[in-house]
Design a protein that fits this description.
- By secondary structure, the protein is α+β, with helices and mostly antiparallel strands.
- It folds into 4 domains: about 1-180, Phenylalanyl-trna Synthetase, Chain B, domain 3 (Phenylalanyl-tRNA Synthetase, Chain B, domain 3), CATH 3.50.40.10; about 190-260, Phenylalanyl-tRNA Synthetase, Chain B, domain 1 (2-Layer Sandwich); about 280-490, BirA Bifunctional Protein, domain 2; about 505-590, Ferrodoxin-fold anticodon-binding domain (Alpha-Beta Plaits).
- About 30% of the residues lie in helices and about 25% in strands.
- The protein contains 15 helices and 28 strands.
- The strands form 8 sheets. A 7-stranded mixed beta sheet has the order 14-17-18-24-23-22-21, with helices on both faces.
- The chain is elongated and about 115 Å long.
- The termini are far apart.
C-alpha cells in the first residue's frame, strides 16, 4: 500500500526545543523540522514514513518498481551502493529516489532549500525489505519495523498526523486529497477460538464474560459467537497473532499468570530414560577432569577478526567463512581456530593482574574448503564445522610459599594434561605419535596423531603473536580435534583392570645413540620388542659433551616389567632386556655405555 500527499510552501528550519528534546532522549539526532517530524511520528505510531523534496518529482508521479542491476544509488548518509534488480525502489519518472522501506536517497532528501514536501506513508512486504536490507548491509529504524511487520491499514492515519504537525511547525498548504494506492486490501485475519480449548491450555476455567472482556480490551473483534466457539477478527497491527493459541497466550497474559493456581496433585509417568549422547558425555568427562586440575572453562564468540587470518599460512584467509553483512570488523569471519579467543582472554585477565592462568574451551571451528569449490556456485559440501578442544597455560604453575619454590608453567606440563585427557578417553600413549610441527603460531610445536588421523597439536606460542596481544609471558597452547578423537575412540571402551598382584621389576639402560635419534623412536622399538611384560618406559637423563663422540648422545632409560599372572624371575627379565637391547642396536645403532 502506498499513501502520499504534497505540502506546498513549507519553511524548513530547526525544530522547536520540545521536539528536539523528545528525539534526543531516544538517541536520535535532530536534523530539521520536517525530517524530525517523520522520525517523531515513526516512534509515536510505530509506522515508518519518509519525506521527499517535491522538486525532484516534477510531474507529481511516483512509482514503486525495481531498477536495472548495478544501478548506482547514493543514500542520505552519503554511501554509494550498486542496486540489485531485486531491490524495491520509490522512483520518479527517470531515477530512484528511495530504497523502499529501508533508506532515502541523498538527492531527494529534505534540506533548508526545500519549499515543497512530498510525504509518504506506505506498507511494504517484510520479505522484500529484509532481503534488500541484508543485501546491502543496511539496518535502519524503518527497515527494522517493516521486517517485523507494520500495519497496512494505518498509513492514512500516520500520514494525516505527520501532515498536521508539518503544517503547524513548518507552515505550508496541503495540496489536494491524499493519494492512496491499495490494490489488494489486507483484511483483518480471522481466527476461531474455542472456550474449552482456551481453558484447557490455561489450566483453569475462566468465565466466558471475562474472556470476552479481555478480547475487547485487546481490540480483538468478536465477529460471531456460537455455543462454545468464537469467531474473531484480529487487528492488522497484531502481526504476531495468527492462531488460536496466540490468542490464548494474550488472554493468559492479561488475566495474569499469578492468578493460575498450581494443582494439588500431578498425574503422569515421570519414569523415562533419555539416551545418553556420547559426545556430550565425554565432553563433560574431560571438562570435569580439567577443572579438577585447576583449569577454568572459557566460552568465546565464534565470530572473530579477519585480521587474525591475513598472511597466516596455517589458517589462510581464503579458507575462512566470511560474513556477508558483519556487525563489525571485529566480527567479520567465523573462527578457524580457538587460539585467538584464548589469547584475548589471557590478555584481558593479565591486564587486570590475574597472571597465572589455566584455561580450556570446547568450541566449533569453521572452514571453507576451496578444493571442493565448483565454479561460482556454493554448496554446503564446501563448508566444514568441527568441534575443537583448546588448552592454554600462562604464568606460574606454583606460587612461592614456605614449603615450595615458585615454578613456571611449561610445555611439558601442557603435554601431561593433553596425554591424561586422551588417556581418559581411551587413547593410550602407545597409540599416539608425536612429531615436530612447524607453523606461524608455534615457535616450537608438536603434532599429535594416531596411525589413522591427525588429532591435534600443541606448543609454545610465538613471541610475535604474544606481542600482538600484549602478553609478556610465555603461553603454551594445545588444540585437539574433538571430532577426530571421537572417531578414533568410537570402538575403545575404557575398562577397569585389577591392580596387579605380582611385583614389578625396574631395569635401566644407558644407551649411546646418534644425535638425531629421538626418545620416541627408542620407546616405539622397545614396545614392539615386548608387548606383554613391558609396562612403562621413561627417560631420566640425557647427556652430551665430554667423553662422548661429537655426533653422539647418551640416553638413560628406565624400563618397568611386570607379569599380571606370576612373579618374574631373573632369566625372564634378562631375556626381555636382551631382546630390547638387540632390537635397539639393530634399528638405531644404540650401544650400551
Amino acid at each position: 500500500r502506498y499513501s502520499a500527499l504534497t505540502i506546498r510552501g513549507v519553511e524548513v528550519k530547526e525544530s522547536p526545543d520540545w521536539l528536539k528534546d523528545k528525539l534526543t532522549v531516544i538517541g536520535l539526532r535532530p536534523i530539521n523540522n520536517v525530517v524530525d517530524i517523520t522520525n517523531f511520528v515513526l516512534h509515536e505510531t510505530g509506522h515508518p514514513m519518509h519525506a521527499f523534496d517535491a522538486a525532484y518529482i516534477p510531474s507529481g508521479i511516483v512509482s514503486v518498481r525495481t531498477l536495472p542491476d548495478k544501478t548506482p544509488f547514493v543514500t542520505l548518509d552519503g554511501q554509494q551502493f550498486e542496486l540489485s534488480d531485486q531491490d524495491l525502489m520509490i522512483c520518479n519518472e527517470t531515477e530512484g529516489l528511495c530504497i523502499a522501506g529501508v533508506f532515502g536517497g541523498l538527492r531527494s532528501g529534505v534540506t533548508e532549500a526545500t519549499k515543497d514536501v512530498f510525504l509518504e506513508s506506505a506498507y511494504f512486504h517484510p520479505t522484500w525489505v529484509r532481503k534488500t536490507a541484508r543485501r546491502h548491509g543496511l539496518s535502519t529504524d524503518s527497515s527494522f519495523r517493516f521486517e517485523r511487520g507494520a500495519d497496512p491499514n494505518n498509513t492514512i492515519f500516520v500520514l494525516k498526523r505527520a501532515a498536521l504537525l508539518i503544517k503547524e511547525l513548518a507552515g505550508g498548504t496541503i495540496e489536494g486529497d491524499i493519494r492512496d494506492a491499495y490494490p489488494s486490501v489486507i483484511e483483518k485475519p480471522k481466527v476461531a477460538l474455542s472456550y474449552q480449548k482456551t481453558c484447557s491450555l490455561i489450566g483453569k476455567e475462566i468465565p466466558k464474560e471475562t474472556i470476552k472482556s479481555i478480547l475487547n480490551s485487546l481490540e480483538i473483534e468478536i465477529e460471531e459467537e456460537t455455543g462454545d466457539a468464537l469467531t474473531l477478527r484480529i487487528p492488522t497491527y497484531r502481526v504476531d497473532v495468527l492462531r488460536d493459541v496466540d490468542v490464548v497466550e494474550d488472554i493468559l497474559r492479561i488475566y495474569g499468570y499469578n492468578n493460575i493456581e498450581i494443582g494439588t496433585s500431578l498425574k503422569g509417568n515421570l519414569s523415562f530414560e533419555t539416551p545418553t549422547d556420547r559426545a556430550n558425555a565425554l565432553q563433560a568427562l574431560i571438562s570435569e577432569q580439567l577443572t579438577a586440575n585447576g583449569f577454568h572453562e572459557v566460552m568465546n564468540n565464534s565470530l572473530t577478526k579477519r585480521a587474525y587470518y591475513e598472511n597466516n599460512a596455517l589458517y589462510p584467509l581464503q579458507e575462512c567463512v566470511a560474513l556477508i553483512n558483519p556487525l563489525s570488523n571485529d566480527l567479520s569471519v567465523m573462527r578457524r581456530t580457538l587460539l585467538y579467543g584464548g589469547l584475548e582472554n589471557i590478555a584481558y585477565n593479565r591486564n587486570r593482574k590475574n597472571n597465572d592462568l589455566r584455561l580450556y574451551e570446547f568450541g566449533n571451528c569453521y572452514r571453507f574448503d576451496t578444493g571442493k569449490r565448483n565454479g561460482d556456485k556454493l554448496t554446503l559440501a564446501e563448508y566444514e564445522e568441527e568441534t575443537h578442544l583448546g588448552l592454554w597455560i600462562c604464568g606460574k604453575r606454583t606460587r612461592k610459599n614456605w614449603e615450595a619454590v615458585e615454578e613456571d608453567g611449561s610445555a611439558y606440563e601442557l603435554k601431561a594434561y593433553v596425554e591424561n585427557s586422551l588417556k581418559r578417553l581411551g587413547l593410550s600413549h602407545q597409540r599416539l605419535v608425536f612429531e615436530p610441527f612447524h607453523s606461524d603460531i608455534f615457535s616450537s610445536g608438536i603434532r599429535i596423531s594416531t596411525h589413522a588421523r591427525n588429532i591435534g597439536q600443541f606448543g609454545i606460542v610465538t613471541r610475535k603473536l604474544r606481542k600482538d596481544f600484549d602478553i609478556d609471558s610465555e603461553v603454551y597452547y594445545a588444540e585437539l580435534n574433538w571430532n577426530a578423537i571421537l572417531k578414533e575412540t568410537a570402538n575403545h571402551e575404557v575398562q577397569f583392570t585389577e591392580i596387579p598382584r605380582y611385583p614389578a621389576v625396574s631395569r635401566d639402560l644407558a644407551l649411546l645413540v646418534d644425535k638425531d635419534v629421538t626418545f620416541a623412536q627408542i620407546e616405539s622399538i622397545a614396545r614392539k620388542s615386548e608387548k606383554k611384560l613391558l609396562k612403562e618406559i621413561s627417560l631420566f637423563d640425557v647427556y652430551e659433551g665430554k667423553n662422548l663422540p661429537a655426533d653422539k648422545k647418551s640416553y638413560a632409560v628406565n624400563f618397568v616389567l611386570q607379569d599380571n599372572e606370576k612373579t618374574l624371575n631373573d632369566k625372564q627379565i634378562d631375556a626381555v632386556m636382551k631382546k630390547i637391547q638387540l632390537n635397539l642396536e639393530k634399528e638405531v645403532g644404540a650401544a650400551l655405555r
